Amino acid sequence: MCAKATMEEFEALLQESFEIDTPDEGSVVKGKVIAIEAGQAIIDVGYKMEGRVDLKEFANPGEAPEIAVGDEVEVYLDRVENARGEASISREKARREEAWDRLEKAYEKEERVEGAIFGRVKGGFTVDLGGAVAFLPGSQVDVRPVRDAGPLMGMKQPFQILKMDRRRGNIVVSRRAILEESRAEQRAEVIGKLSEGMVVDGVVKNITEYGAFVDLGGVDGLLHVTDMAWRRVNHPSEILSIGETLKVQVIKINKETHRISLGMKQLQEDPWDAVERSYPLGSVHKGRVTNITDYGAFVELEAGVEGLVHVSEMSWTKKNVHPGKIVSTSQEVDVMVLEIDSAKRRVSLGLKQTMRNPWEVFAETHPVGSTIEGEVKNITEFGLFVGLDNDIDGMVHLSDLSWDQRGEDAIQNYRKGDVVQAAVLEVDVEKERISLSIKALGEDTFSEAIDGVKRGSVITVNVTAIEDGGIEVEYNGMKSFIRRSDLSRDRAEQRPERFQVGDKVDARVTNVDAKTRRLGLSIKAREIAEEKEAVEQYGSSDSGASLGDILSAALKGDRN
């Protein structure tokens, strides 16, 4: 009887075990910590199953595990029985499943999630979101590049989920989005308290080539380099340093973009208010060259007041050189105020006006007719340029090179570097021209030779050469030529061969050309003039005398 009862109890227990539902593998179950040994927690998950979990799975990144015997925990059931006959369980996977459910809900609602940065990976960081690991790109850590992320490691803070894919196990989060949202709220609050024209304190946060960013207590404003001082500032670092506290004026606020423009010079007295009074036209002042361009040089008269010396006002003599060849940066120079435009904040200055006009000086020291000596600087098709004192030039025109030669021929006698003497013909200060003459220092043999000779005069010349086209003659050393057609009134006598070298011949002067230095002579013109004179003296048109009679009488009269 007893054996039968024992058998029935065993069958009942076996049936009971079959009726108990075994949990599904791959699900999260609850368990109880029944022991902790060898760095592991032994957990009873019910169903007469136990499993082991490493203690590190109960710890948050960078923290010690918080687990004790008797604690109830949720674990992930991988397999009901492993090789050791125990359940294969994982606390980490349970937390991950729980976290994914929670994170998906937050992602759908665009809510923030809490996490902690615990590691570095290529391109960013890893973040623990309470069981699920997310990727934080380096560009999403802060609103500005972060050089040292050490202080952020292990610190619980909010993140925004940008993207997640449960199937692939990918989550991308952003810390920057949280900061920007918070910053925007703070910015709006600070901007709401600011107004244009207000003077506030700020701290220099960053310096660039074009200006500095100033923290106004949660919102940054741009202090442009042109608004730092009335004077020229080449780089903001000349007058500002990072961390410096300064007073600035709010110049402009863009309500839409929340951009704030700041100014420092607006808190100082504008030097341009007194420019016209301090720098009257024509006055000379000392200044410092601050910048050199292709078209001139900027000279600082005082802090905040600069003027331009245009390249045309830099030198009396150096016309086509770069301003950098005349002045250098930081050089102190004397300048004259030529023009002031207060509306455009411009001052036109002159450098050459502080020195005497070299053409005026030359005119005073070298009156017309005086002799100069200089080096031939250049030779052109129309004359020579001769170097004079004070780096100026004078020109000798072709027509002023020689009395005896054509200018085109005479210029062939000169070379660059030759030292020549010349007479001053004219000094035009306004046009900056000096006319010189080399031939004026020599004798004008032509003028001397024809002294007293004028058109219509009859002169005696010596025949020096017989040519087919006429005869060459000489008068007081000056050569001339009588053409065949001018050799006689009588066509039959217009023969050059009837003359011989050495003959003396009377000819009438038909032209005196001082420019070409030529005398125009004609025997024919002399004969016609003599005939006309004889007719007037010895006969008349109605006397009935023949031309031969008149001439015969005229000749007799000459003999008597």
TrEMBL record:
Q: Which GO terms describe its cellular component?
A: ribosome
Which stretches make up the S1 motif domain?
Answer: 26-92, 110-176, 197-265, 282-352, 369-439, 456-524
Q: Which InterPro entries match?
A: NA-bd_OB-fold, Ribos_protein_bS1-like, Ribosomal_bS1, Ribosomal_protein_S1-like, S1_domain
The regions listed as transmembrane in this protein's record are none
Q: Does the keyword Oxidoreductase apply?
A: no
Coiled-coil ranges (or none) = none
> Do the record's keywords include Oxidoreductase?
no
Q: Cross-referenced Pfam families, in alphabetical order?
A: S1
Which keywords accompany this UniProt record?
Answer: Repeat, Ribonucleoprotein, Ribosomal protein, RNA-binding
What family does the entry list? Belongs to the bacterial ribosomal protein bS1 family.
UniProt function note: Binds mRNA; thus facilitating recognition of the initiation point. It is needed to translate mRNA with a short Shine-Dalgarno (SD) purine-rich sequence.
Q: What is this protein called?
A: 30S ribosomal protein S1
Q: Which organism is it from?
A: Halodurantibacterium flavum
